[in-house]
User: Fold these one by one.
Assistant:
Number 1:
Amino acid sequence: MASTKPKILIATLGTRGDVQPYAALAGELVRLGAQVVVVTGHGFDSMIGKAGARPRSVPVDYEALLRAPEVREALFTVRGKIRVARKSVSEQQEVTRALWTAALEEKPDLILFNLKATVVTLAARRLNVPALPTVLQPVSAATGDFPVPLFGLPDLGRTLNRAGYLAARKLMRLGLAPLLKPLKSEISDDILGPEDPLDGHMPDGSQALSLQGFSSALIPRPEDWPDHAWLTGYWFSKPDRKYQPKLDLLQFLDSGPAPVYVGFGSMPSRKPDDLTGLILSALSQTGQRAVLARGWGGLNAGELPDVLKDKVYLIDKAPHSWLFPRCSGIIHHGGAGTTHEALRWGKPSLVCPVFADQPFWGSRVHKSGAGPAPIPQHKLTTGQLIKALYALDVPAYADNAQKAAEVMQNEPGAEGAAKQIMKHLETANRVTAERPIAAQ
């Protein structure tokens, strides 16, 4: 017997920080009675399965890509960016085709997508189902309050800030065009249409709801945002109650004051040995306890010097939702997920950004009063880090981080967003049932 549960397809591309919030959202949608398929790159099947959703992979592994030397070079040089961009078009076209195929084959009742997976808007037009755009950074709704957060821009004033969003949107559309070339024979002109696919699709022609998946503790809702931009709060995963840490980690945490956490996740460093040495030197001079996460090349910590063996604990990974509450402060790269997770537990942060939206999140942490001014990773010195380590102990930072945590606790989050999506689906389905499917 065919299931009567509504089917929701979530399309998201990127590293763990681009997938985990959607897995949390998927879990809440499943709890409310939906079938959920999460279409993303390789490496996340277990996470998605634990949420009760069904994973469907497209042919890309972003975390493996970040390990590739040419991609690492692209993070730090213009020449590297050009080389990778030229090489990756055919690979991105393959991913785009896989997203298009997955949406058509799954035949969902509603689609949620991040902007890297915008092609599914066109599939929604063909299927005559809603497609709702979602973002984890404020990149889709223009505002004069702050610049587009993707390029490390300073505040340019209200007029230029808004103009920057229009320019970014044009760049996104230009970037999508070559990826659709292999699908030209399958996408008719009426499906392509004049409407911007970044805005999603509603079968009745109305404006699609745009889910802004970040916290008002960091970004108060701008007054010049359109009504359809809904600030939901961040989509946190629930803490894993089954997680069992290593006994020696528990012993370390219990053996003294709460340590500071230092880790840069999936972000590689251009000179990981130098960065590691700098961090260890600062810790040896401050005498602070620390949990140091090796990550993927950001840090190359091997054997600790004798002076730090009782002060620093090295880990490969641990759930942030388990570890951060046990730390005094967080030093990280400024990804949206880590930034929100630190404040979720009321912990002050120092952001050492590498690229993209990370400088923006660092500035928002500082503006909220929950941490010192960000220091770009490539500019970090031992002296600066020593000052920052001491600064994280300033009571005002902890107080403001706790205030941010209280704001986050009262936001809709993944649970509230899921409830709204289900209501949206119920309304949209009534309209869809009355309209014919678009010509194929």
Note: The domain at 247-409 is CATH 3.40.50.2000 (Rossmann fold).
Number 2:
Amino acid sequence: MRIVSAELMAYRLPFATPWISATGHLTERRGWLVRIRDRSGRCGYGDAAPLPAAGTETAPESRAWLEERLPRMIGLSPEPACRTLSPGSGHPAARCGLETALLDLQGKQQGLPLYRLLGGEPGHTVRLNAALGALNESSGERVAAAIAAGFNILKLKLGSAPMAVELPLLEQLCERLPAGVRLRMDANRAWRADETRQLIERLNHLPIESLEEPLRDPQCEILNELQALARFDLALDESLPGYLQAGQRLPPLPVRRLIIKPACLGGPLAALELIRQAHRQGSACVVTSTLESSAGLWPLLHLAAAADALTTPAVHGLATADWFARDLGAAPVIINGHVTLGSEPGTGFILKA
């Protein structure tokens, strides 16, 4: 069924607590909710939430791209409309928002949840890590709360303070972790190569699950050396697009894990293709939020479910909704660190009245 309207709805969502990382501080998240409607009144929603620090375009670039392309959707059905979105447009967050809205509407028209459209299996449960923000003196309280809520992979941001300050805090946290609980860390390119070597040697004896983007200058040869040194996975995140070229296969990678952020890759379809290629290469993939609204988190969970059906199931980084003081709609319900997707058509996102 054809699309009869397409619009942008600007939003501004404050954080309940500032989000702190090596790339800076965020007190709010701004973006656009993309809404497309067919002649029966069904709506598809997508979150266009640019975040240049994560590797997307700027907000003005995102809005201009969307305003130029939304009118072209009128009169098309969702599936052919998706095919008009050229890959590698240079506006990945905008493209992700529009493509997600089209896929949401397509799922609703066909009576299928998005994860089924993407190849996922019915009744799949998605495992998530807790998102605890920056490592600091109050991290112990957040760690205890996450463990009580049933999470066993806990993610912390490093690099917002000197390593000499953070490492003792990290070691103290690890001493108090119960068996079976591990830390996932993200440095957002905070350190020099010599600092990272020293850190990995210390971390190798701790319950560390992975370390994302440790290097300020992520040279392939050095990352390869560091991965050989580490007993845990190193991961590419912000530097991943530098390894990707439109229309070409994924080259051999220097680390064992990829962080998959559709807002930085141009949408869920491009992200799923990258996951397929990484699986053939033997690289693990973790679908992760770029602090999207609930309109963005729902489709990411569906992508994670489809990824788990394609490759070894992962613990994904999508438990970020609690950081917002308010949201565009209800976020997915997390029980003991898991989300089970139902059979509702589309993504499951419902806009608040």
Note: The CA atoms of residues 157 and 330 lie 26 Å apart.
Number 3:
Amino acid sequence: MIRTSSARRLRAALGTAVAAAALAACGGAPAHQGAAAVVGSDRISIAQVEARVAAVRDGAAQAGAAAEEQPGLARHAVSDLILGKVVARALADHRITVSQSEVDQARSADARTVGSDTKLAELLRAKQGVPSGDVDGFYRQQIGLVKLAAGQDPNSPAGDAAIRKALVDAGTALHIEVNPRYGSWDTARISLTGSTENWLPAASTQAL
């Protein structure tokens, strides 16, 4: 485990590591065609989700761990991609920035704890579903979450409440919609729930 990262502990506390899938459909087919989710004005394409899943699988294969693949990998990828946009919106709303030096410092500290940067990347891949090329992005997000606690201990009730409020407000403002094959986004819980078969209206037969 990466024991020294308060950001990672926060992620676990929020349940984002195991959050799955995406939002309820509402709207016309053209904007949703080929989309895993629509977050504000941004589309998360199915191709983006597949690319993230492929990167995680490639990392597992290189580590000789392909057989350990966890179920729901695509749903987890959708959840992470949505959460990334929610966190980014919350940080922008609160005028919070995260510098590259902060990312480097946190990443280096955890790498020293686990033995190497390579080992750190493998742990994040195995435990959090983070592709090796997105480790900096993972730390940027986690540091941002800590900053949303507004100076309070992010693991305290007050800090947790501040973070959750910021994310709920951001998610509400973004009007997130998710392809029901991945589930639906619960704005209050900041996670994906459930799943259904069809994304487009029943009258449409056009493939995703």
Note: Residues 73-93 form the longest helix (21 residues).
